[in-house]
Amino acid sequence: MRRPDSDRASSQRSTPRSGRGGQTLGERYIAGVPARIMRPRLIFMACLFTLVCFGLLMVYSASSVEALHENGSATYFLFRQLGFTIVGMAALEFIARLAPDSCFKESTLKVALFVMIGLLLLVFFVGSGSRGATRWLNIAGVQFQPSEFLKPFAIAYSAIMLDRFYSPGGNINEFAVKMLGCLGPSLLLIFIQPDLGTVLIILLAIACMALFAGMDARLIIVLAVAVALVMVIALIAEPYRRVRFEVTWNPWADEYGDGYQATLAIMAFASGGLFGRGIGDSTMKYSYLPEAHNDYILAIIGEEVGFVGTVLFFLVFAMLIYSAFRIAEQATDRRGALMASGSAVILAVQFLINALGILNVFPMTGKPLPFISYGGSSIIVSLMLAGLILRVSHESARRDEYDHRRESFAVMDESTAGVPHVRGDRPSRNGFTVFDGSASEPAARPRPRTAPQGRPQRPNPRSSGGGYNRIDLNSDPSARLRTDDQGPRVRRDYHDR
Predict the structure, then answer these.
(1) For the chain, first and last CA: distance in Å?
(2) In this predicted structure, what is the pLDDT of residue 225?
(3) For 323, which of 44, 81, 353, 487 could close a Cys bridge (C-beta 3.0–4.6 Å)?
(4) Which residue positions in the chain have pLDDT lower than 70?
């Protein structure tokens, strides 16, 4: 991605500027917005709408059997997911267009991060969990995962800190203290839950943002090596993490034990073939594959739409991420570019972790598929990240400060410079003087200043009639030339011989 403060010669024309928002005359507009800004926004919104609708369809297809068996209604999970999606769309609209700029200032985001620290601490006392991990809170009948909601706040706050650090006068000590003080406790609490996957996703997104901002790649490599050493220690300390790597290496070694879900996911993809069994005709969802509508929903997608449908699904998501980076490229400042690119990185990394885990290329970490998997926290946070990206696009379309200042210009009915004076009057000593230009030419000429006593007055080249005194240069021009005995020899023209 290009630096946000770099030369955008490719996106601007060299034609004269017009008065419409400071844009060039040769630039195209879409709905009153420059096409270079509106085009990636429209692509992003189209891909987002397609993914959300496809996710609702697949949640219904993958969960209908389990919902009918356990809740008596095949649409139980569908309507719950639809409700979560409506809440997420409201959050997206608020972040993208309705939230004031004060909501994205450092002080406001710092308060939000401290609230997240409190919620993460509350998880250890009244939280609920499963499979050895305590990650959920239940407040007023609403269950959510605080670690998921940390992602948009971490991205927005990191964008501000990185922009300030790489601006003139940035302080490394202030940057380190604020980043560690506001994000360090939250990441530590998430790591203790334990939720290593979320920590890795957030750290990787911040590292990519730092690289986009201008951080030396060698420093990022050093930090990555340090984080990798910590992760190796964490793998050694927890036996269940080692088991996940063993399953990735050979899932058929314990196909009815630890490798049960991995082997069934592989069989679901294999049974889908080239074009799939058809939407709703999956066999693995009949109580064979656990979490079919949640973490393992991609296996059901592969079975029902086949290889071709899965590739098309991947292409739509890739186009979503590409358009997000295009929005970041058109941002008007570094903070917006980092916020959009960081949100895109989180969505892309989480998608890859889930997809590679289902395909048994990477250990399964329990991360849901963005916009697709069932879960309130997942779909709401994913739409919040999309809202951050769209907010950057809307900010890019705003007219800059100079356009607002030009709108405030007005033609004054009366001059505020002072009272006009007739030319020839004594100038005012209080600043400057305005002349009305109504005096005649002789009167408009300033009066000659009298020289002080004891100082000779410099002769005035002008005569009383207003013209300069002419110097008589003789009528014959040759008389003005010097002779040989009067000065330097005159160069002769030998061509006249």
Answers:
(1) 75
(2) 86
(3) 44
(4) 1-27, 129-133, 399-497
